[in-house]
Every structure is written in C-alpha cells, then in structure tokens.
Amino acid sequence: MCGIVGILNGGSPELLERALQLVAHRGPDDWGIQWFPEQCSGLGHRRLAILDLTPAGHQPMVNQRGTRWITYNGELYNFRELRKELEQRGYRFRSQTDTEVVLAAYDEWGAECVRRFNGMFAFGIYDTERRELFLARDHLGIKPLYYGVSGKTFAFASEAKAVLVLLGIDPEPEEDALLSTLLFLWVPEPKSGFRGVWKLPPGHYARVRQGQMWLTEYWDVPLPGAEGYLLYRHEQEYIEQLRLLLERAVARQMIADVPVGAFLSGGVDSSVVVALMRRAEPEADLATYTIAFAPEDHRVEAQPDDPAYARIVARHVRTRHREFCIRPDINAVLPKLLWHLDDPLADGAAINTYLIARYAKQHGTTVLLNGMGGDEVFAGYRKQLATLMLQHYHRLPAWFRKQLVEPFLQALPASWVRSRLRPLRWLKKMLPPMRLSPLEAFIYGFAYCSPERLQRLWRRPLPPVEELYPIRRYRDVAERARGQSLLTQLTYLDTKLFLTGLNLLYSDKAAMATAVETRPPLLDVELVEFAFRIPDRYRIRGVQQKYLLKRAAEAYVPREVLFRPKAPFATPLLAWMDGVLGDQLQRWYAERPGLHREYLNAAEVLSLLEEHRRGSANHAHLLWACLVLAEWLALWGESRVPDLPPQVDEAVLRLEIS
Q1: Dist CA 443 CA 326 (whole Å)
Q2: Would you call 2 a catalytic residue per the annotation?
Q3: Which residue in 352, 357, 371 sits closest to 277, CA to CA?
Q4: Which of 2, 113, 449, 626 is flagged as catalytic?
Q5: Contact, 266 vs 313, CB < 8 A?
Q6: DSSP class per residue in 76-101
Q7: Could you read off the pLDDT of 132-142 as tens digits, one per residue?
Q8: What domains are there in the chain, each with its CATH number?
C-alpha cells in the first residue's frame, strides 16, 4: 500500500516532491522520485512496506531493459502464480515484491495484463521510448486514482490534493459534489470534490500520449446474459462453491510480511472474514478491533449491541481482541479527516475507520482485513429489501394503498418514531418512495434530502431533480442493467456506485491516514463474479438477506451472530445531533461567516436543526451533511492546497478502552 504521483509534460522535480509530501501518510517507510528531463515528466512514490521489506522494493521501479518505470499502489494476490509463469518465459526478478511482477506482466502482455490480475491496485507505468503513460485501476475501485489536465500537462495521484498541486490549480469546489453530499452523503464517481479533478473509473485502464487520453474498460460486474445464471442442481452445491471461494479469498489476502489483523464489528461480513482468517492460519496471533459507543447513545439509536456480538466471535475464533469506546467530542477530528478524504463525504463510518486504524497501528498492526462489500454483492442492505417489498406493495389495490397504508404512515408522529425501534423509522422514510416505481424509489426516493427541501437549502439556481448529476449518474449506470431482475439491478447499482463512491473511498483514505492497509476479501473478483451469477433466491430468501452467504458461514460462525439484527457501521448521529453536534452546527450557521453561506441557506439549516431538536422530525444525517459541507468548504475554500491536515488535540483521541 502506497502513495503514487506522476506528471507528464510539465512541472519540475521540486513540484513532484511537494505533491509527494501531500501523500506521505500513505507511505512512511520509503520514498523516491524519477524525473525524465527530456520529456519534462516524472513519477513519485511513497512506500508502506508490506511485501519484501528490504530496499529491493524501492519505487519508482524500472524494468529489465531500463525503458519502463512504475509507481504502484496496492496488492496483487496472485503475484506468485504470475511470477512463476513469467519466470518460465525468461524473466528474472530482483525482489520478492508484487510490484516487479506487475511491471514484468506489462512488458509481456501489455495492457491486457490487468485481466490476469487478482487484487487491489492503482498504478502508472511510463514508457520512456514511446513517451507514453499507462494507468490502471483495479476491478472494483478498491484503490483510488485521481487525474487532471491543464493545458498540455497531465497529472495523476492517489489523492486529489496532489493532482491540484501538480497542475497548479487552486481548489475550486465542484457544485455537483456538494449537491451529491446533500442528497446521498457522498459523490458518485467519476467526479471528485474539486472541479477539474476526476477519478479513473474502476475496471478501466488509460493510455496518455501527446496530450491525448484513451480510456478502456477491461472489466465490469458480470450480469447474467446468454450464459444465464449458475445452474447447480442443489442448494448445497452453491453453498460448497461459495465456501471454497471464501476460504481461497481470505487465505490469499493474508499474504504479508507484516502483522495482519481485522476490523470486527460483530456483523455477518466481518465475522465471516475473521473466522476464515483463523481457518487459514490456525496458530497465527490474530488481532481484532471493535469500536463501541456509550450506552445512552445506543438507547437513542435503538441499535443492537455490536460489541457483544464481536466478543462472541473473538472468543469463538480465539483472537487477541481489543474494544474501545468513543465519545461525541471525537468529532473534533472531522477537519483533519476531510483533508484526507478529499471528497466532502458525510458518513460517520469514516471516523470509526480512522480511529480503529489509528489504534491498530499503535498496537503494531499494519494490515487490517474487513467485511466491505458483503452488503452490496450479497444483498444485505435494508433499502434493497425495502425496494423489493415496494414492488409487491404496488400490486396491492390502489384504494388500499392510498386510503389505508399511506395515511397511517403519514400519521405516525416523528417524535414517537424516533424513540422506537429502527424499523419504524424505515416505515416512515418509505412513505415518499411508495409513490414511485421501485427503481425510481431506489435511485432517489431514499435520499436524505427531498427535492423540495433541496430547493430551500441551496442558495443557487437548481435544475429539476432528475437532471442533477448524482441522479443522472444513477440513471446512466442503471441503463447498463436494463432487462435484469430488480434485485440484480439494485445490487449492480450499489456495487458500481455506492460501494466505490462511499465505502471503498473512506475505507482506503481513513485507514491510510494512519499508514494502515485495509483489504476486503469479500470483493475478491472471483467471489464477486460468482455472486452475480447465482439466482436471486439465494441472495434474498423471503425477508432473509444474504441468504447464501449466511448458509455458507454456518460452518464458521455461531448462528446467534449470523442471524442477529442488522446494524450499520456508523456513529450515533441521532444521539449526538441532539447534543454536541447540534451545538457545533448552530455555531457554523448562526455565527460564523464563510463559503458555506454562499452555497447553503443558513436559515433553512437552522430551521432543520430546530425541527430535529424538538423531535418533530429526524434530520440527523442531513444535518451532519450540512456540518460536513461547512467544515469542508472552510478547509478547501482557500486559494491554495493546505500542505498539512488540521491538527487535533491528542486528549480528544485518548479513547476509553475495555
């Protein structure tokens, strides 16, 4: 895991070094620059040593002929198999790194090499003879890769801030990104938070030469076509195949020359991963980490006791388990985290990831496996089930829906719903989507801000909601899955957009802020391809979500964990917005001047806060988005990129340990 930067036809070694300093947190173990003066181009690299900890892994790395240089970020899990094949073709290797294998694979197979890779990666290879740059990003977008163009100069990097510096561009907020944050809390790719900076799409590679860029898609989430679904005769055959793929994925993602541990939330996905880590290495000293919240926050949120389930798994699997509790004042870390995230991302889970990774690093763990991707690929989100139920709901007589069900939900007092179980909140939230088609409901019916509210919040002219960037982006991707079953369309959209734009982004950026590598075994490309070719009934059976995954996991994880109530991996915003977060938001929009007032209507934000505090509505997530935008615009609204993230009082980061 590393930080990479590069520039073509512009800049200087000094500029490249400054950009490299902006991603120094991604690689504290080594750094290097390779400058090509005749081409006025260069590559830079910050190294977090995971494989082959010797100087042989130094980057940028050159091929045997001395004609191609690589700067590489990621892990190639099948590099040993590829290395053997390349050795049989006459290649000789100087290191034990996967970087050298990637470079040799490009020499041997050209751009088609990426189709052979199983891993997470983002890299650039510069050919000094052709004066051509090759860029590639992994199948699902686990590793970030930003790029931008200014005149004849092209730049790329692991983080957007480094691209801005390389191009000499002032950070200008991308309005589409700000609106996306208000609607969804995150920004759909390929746009970033900054105008003029883009993300290379997952499953794509690009060639850049003589000021032109050619983009090619080499992989997409597979949709059942002419070959149809997998047609095993018995359910048990699906279970056995899934177990084989799960065991293989986790085993190969444990390959490292540094300590490997895991996030353990107590949910199904992370529990399966941890159990399979023990199966792969029965005698390994496995460290697991869990985050907890105060009991009073749990009562307000009506959440299951995640740490209790995590402890059950830790005892069952025999891990060295650590659990810590966070307080509302930990949100003082938000400005620092937004510097690392680049995008105005408003999901409290980013704070959780940062804190767990920081704590793990302090205790000697450099690599953390997680359960990312299980909900998207195996259909574990409530919104997916709710949309399927909505499909059935539309089959009920119109008079029954309009005269009985919808008036009942409309009459539920928000204050009463807030104090009861989470399913009641979902029933209340489902009322607007009930009037939409199932796919429309999934795309924007479950947004955190209604079109009417957005018109009042946003101070600038707005097009109709269906013309807003995030909605258009969803519709464009949905078109690729036209004709598929509704469930396949939903999981395809979540995997292509929600997973990459939100979950993988914060997972990488928040952990790499502490120089910790995260790995998601459930996003192994073979596993994803299998999951998208199983019949719908094995992803959701009745109301049982992730059915096949849970059936397969019965061999590894206690049933009380597998069939527990679902809880999101997030901070208790509802509880905190009633207190310290609400006070913080009040100060921003009632007292402080700034760029946030040019985009958002302060009076409307304060009105939302008042409604929330008196219990007449639950605006916790939308209010959090407004707070994030205020902090983000204050951070990035200056005329130059901040060289360092805002500092945080260490006393705030001293967490209660249990």
Answers
A1: 33
A2: yes
A3: 371
A4: 2
A5: yes
A6: ETTHHHHHHHHHHTT---SSS-HHHH
A7: 999 999 999 99
A8: 2-172+179-217 (3.60.20.10), 235-378+516-562 (3.40.50.620), 573-657 (no CATH)
